[in-house]
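step 4 of 6: structure.
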Amino acid sequence: MNAPLNIKDPLVLFMPSGKRGNFPLGTPVLDAARQLGVYVESVCGGRATCGRCQIEVQEGNFAKHKIVSSNDHISPKGPKEERYERVKGLPDGRRLSCSATIQGDLVVDVPQDTIINAQTIRKAAVDRHIERNPAIQLCFVEVDEPDMHKPLGDLDRLKVVLEHDWGFKNLQVAHHLLADVQKILRKGEWGVTASIHRDPEAEQPTIIALWPGLKNEAYGIACDIGSTTIAIHLVSLLSGRIVASSGTSNPQIRFGEDLMSRVSYVMMNPDGREAMTVAVRQAINELTDKVCTEAGVDRHDILDSVFVANPIMHHLFLGIDPTELGQAPFALAVSGAVHCAASDLALDFNQGARTYLLPCIAGHVGADAAGATLSEGPYRQDKMMLLVDVGTNAEIVLGNRNRVVAASSPTGPAFEGAEISSGQRAAPGAIERVRIDPATLEPKFRVIGSELWSDEDGFAESVADIGVTGICGSAIIEVVAEMYLSGIISEDGVVDGAMAERSARILPNGRTFSYLLHDGTPRITVTQNDIRAIQLAKSALYAGVKLLMEKQGVDHVDTISFAGAFGSFIDPKYAMVLGLIPDCDLSDVKAVGNAAGTGALMALLSRDHRREIESTVQKIEKIETALEPKFQEHFVHAMALPNKVDPFPKLAEQVTLPPRKVLADAAAEGGGGRRRGREGRRGRE
Amino acid sequence: MNAPLNIKDPLVLFMPSGKRGNFPLGTPVLDAARQLGVYVESVCGGRATCGRCQIEVQEGNFAKHKIVSSNDHISPKGPKEERYERVKGLPDGRRLSCSATIQGDLVVDVPQDTIINAQTIRKAAVDRHIERNPAIQLCFVEVDEPDMHKPLGDLDRLKVVLEHDWGFKNLQVAHHLLADVQKILRKGEWGVTASIHRDPEAEQPTIIALWPGLKNEAYGIACDIGSTTIAIHLVSLLSGRIVASSGTSNPQIRFGEDLMSRVSYVMMNPDGREAMTVAVRQAINELTDKVCTEAGVDRHDILDSVFVANPIMHHLFLGIDPTELGQAPFALAVSGAVHCAASDLALDFNQGARTYLLPCIAGHVGADAAGATLSEGPYRQDKMMLLVDVGTNAEIVLGNRNRVVAASSPTGPAFEGAEISSGQRAAPGAIERVRIDPATLEPKFRVIGSELWSDEDGFAESVADIGVTGICGSAIIEVVAEMYLSGIISEDGVVDGAMAERSARILPNGRTFSYLLHDGTPRITVTQNDIRAIQLAKSALYAGVKLLMEKQGVDHVDTISFAGAFGSFIDPKYAMVLGLIPDCDLSDVKAVGNAAGTGALMALLSRDHRREIESTVQKIEKIETALEPKFQEHFVHAMALPNKVDPFPKLAEQVTLPPRKVLADAAAEGGGGRRRGREGRRGRE
């Protein structure tokens, strides 16, 4: 701290940061916070007009801190603060820290409005607190009028006062403001609010926007560009509050369902890259329209934006040809964090808005994985955390504060219902939950759009309109796991044809057998090939995890975080029964929703989080599964349910696993043709 | 210097800088230069392929420096240098300083190729040496190939090697390169040349261009945007040589001849500002085409550009509405130096090219005056220098190393032949020189396009095609001065009607008299009103100079520099006879040509000159003539020839001034209606 330490001066403790210091009587609370590096917003620069610098005094005897804090230890409201209260209102107990001065020992609470909307970050950490330190600052100033004796330009006098009042040195100016500065200054009668972009990694402090008078709100966009879905948050940069969230399909789907087919589209079509770049940027502009309309926000008040994406989406969004990512050595054009103007990306925000992209970890482990890593923070804690983002390439991060390793595994699209005979996307009519009675082998299920199980009264009526149309990703996991638990399939994943004697649901299907899940229109069966597809996908994922565990020298993980939409809907128990994830106490497995998007939000609200993930990504060790000799061995072992060699002791405590049953693998021959080379799957969504 | 000082180590002296130091045996000469801060260009980074780092050893006993220097004290050519010599040639005595190492005491000459083309900088300092330190650097590097084990992006590995080989930290990248970096690296087989823009006042070091392989040339543009003429130099940034120069009329003339009428055009026409901005930028692009074609240069090799202009041209070029400059308090939108991308100004150079505009001094003293100040450098010397740029507003700078003051004076367009009954622009047929015989009152003159005086044999034939069409600016000065010297007009500028008895060339003209200069078609006369216009213009200029002299507390100036085209053509003697400039030894009056353009060139070639003029402009005291109570008094005194009160002793030593002759000022009544308020003239070209 800069204030002279005088033990006779009052002691002030700021919460929740816990920073403390002694300050002379009469020091404005805002000044004390600044000197301690406690972030308290202020736009008006101490004029008691913006109301952003509110604090609350905590009353009581804080014995631990040796502070007796009281509202008597802060100055009474002066005329400026009273005027603010009268005109704009001030909640009970709140004070403007620019006006209230220290009159004795204080415990000061800086109210934290940052709450991640629970609905949009499904099942994720609600009430997460993100300490704000945004790259955008709003600064109200009063500029000297022109003086013929000191003919400094209008912009130059603006810079002088911004340096004088706010401490910005060597200020740059966004070029488009040159043409506007005179009108804005005159319209504001020489009182204007400047928006400063300050991120020393990107540029010198720069005036990016200017408004006449006091501008008291600014927004940012945090966006996760998934191959399938684009998700966006509109956030107040001054309070940290999410004011609206939305999502939309990635329109690039029309150029190719999965990543690899989009890369192929670029290679085949001269304008393919451009078309996909335009499509994704346009989708983001439309989503922005949507969240702005919902929140009643002018899109030109958006001043900053942060994006995460997998490497191919990242490159296409930036206008980079992703062809190199389609083949070894999977070279990224740029892996580090990208800073640019939003207008460079044709984003229709404020003309001076800035954009930040989180760094990519490797050619198949993108800025989305970096965002999830920032959000979940394996490197911030002691436990060995496995973070899995099951998109299509699964991105896997394993580590703790000592060391973090990362890889991607080519799981393919089976987990999302593709390559499954009755598979479909999660939509009304899709089966999402399955149970099989081990005695009768009869199933029951639930479909999206109905609250009832299929064996409950009224089920047929409840799905009369939507139908029962297919199996979505989460149910595929469950039905295969239940088939295994009920003995329909062996440890090796072979449907036991002998069971056909016990149940009419076991149907011959060429040289293999299927399981009839629902005898309607359409008929929904689980075929031997479906099971093979799931086995291939899960063993790819598990083999990747296993490699990382070997790198870390551990035989188990302490916690598992499942990121992504898929992770939000699957039941960890069934995932573990299948051997998709390693053995772990089920209570330590959690779905963390769109952790990548949460990471984007954190980087939007704090430059500290940008530096944090940039330095973390540099330290993460990247494992290229294709180059690891043991991958194939792990892969083969992982084809078994849950695994040929690895025990699942914690799972066994909670679930009765069937006795081992090995069948002649007729199906393996039938399904073998589909077991393509791994490289062929690489990069698929 | 950084090398350990060891007196046993060889001593190396670099010329012309005079920097010296001791270096261990075997130190490459280039490294020694770098350690001493001697600027030696190098693109290839010591690979002996670019040939930019050439030096020469001076042989002999340099007793003053206690150095015996010899080519034996430098290593013989190694294989790399020999290869360069064989393939590209090396002039006699030249060595590549990256390869040649120190083997004994040396005097090393760093050849200076910087020569300002004498033809383009008319009558200006030829062979001016500008110490180079350009904002653009070319750096050849060899980038590591992609490695799946260390999946750093291509661009990121480029940054790593640029930091390692060239020391650039926290490098930024021009956004458009993201899409190109992979192709360029592969095309260059991982050897590429990056262009770095390094000007800490503007931005962090930034990669603005990238080429496969070794790129060994880069260019810059230095441009003076005058109200009438745009002048441009195309310059090699690696050698400092001007490779082509050109000029063109400012196309904004079609919107208004003088500055004030262009401001009016903006005020009257909603799209006026935009139209004039487009026009001037387009003209610069066309001029660029012209110089590039002439020099065989690809315009995309232009990486930097520097512009000077008067305030209104400056604002229109930047796309700023100049309306505020048309009225008190003449507020500039921006007065400080402007850094931006050339593409911000629609300049069609390399996509990543940068632009720098010199600072403006005041609302009427522009970046052109700053350029002239940088070129002539009154602040660099002890003598009291008067620097006058007679455009239309005359921009006046007076000072020495202790103090510099500046002002503009509203001279109006009379000096350029406007407002003169027979006035015309300098073009074939225009009278450019005039003498009047004091005995006979007969004139002789020369016209542009003929080498003969009008009283010489063959004159009529020599002008048969071009005619004698009018009087240009330089001749107006001469004819009025000659009329005064021959007694045709009085000290007060009144044509003496009594002289009509002596010469038929004195013609009655209403209540006043005219002088018949040429009795042809057209008839060319100098009217009383013409003389009044010149008197008004010259007294405005002189009154401004006088104010500055008073601010400086001097009664005379030591030297006078006349900048601008007008300054290049007028005869200082006649200017002084008219009292346009203060008394001074005629040998200390010089024309310096387009000093503003020379200043732009200096700022293009050296960032040090940018800093120099930026800090100088901050220190220059600006005098607003309109606010000075004594201006009117000086103005009235200056109406007399040469001046009512100020003596011209040095002029009198060289020219016989006529005895004082005061006539009744009948003309003053006639001419009074034309003596408009000063504000009405302000801002006119």
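step 5 of 6: annotate
 - Chain B has a mean pLDDT of 90.
 - Chain B touches chain A through 53 residues (CB under 8 Å).
step 6 of 6: archive
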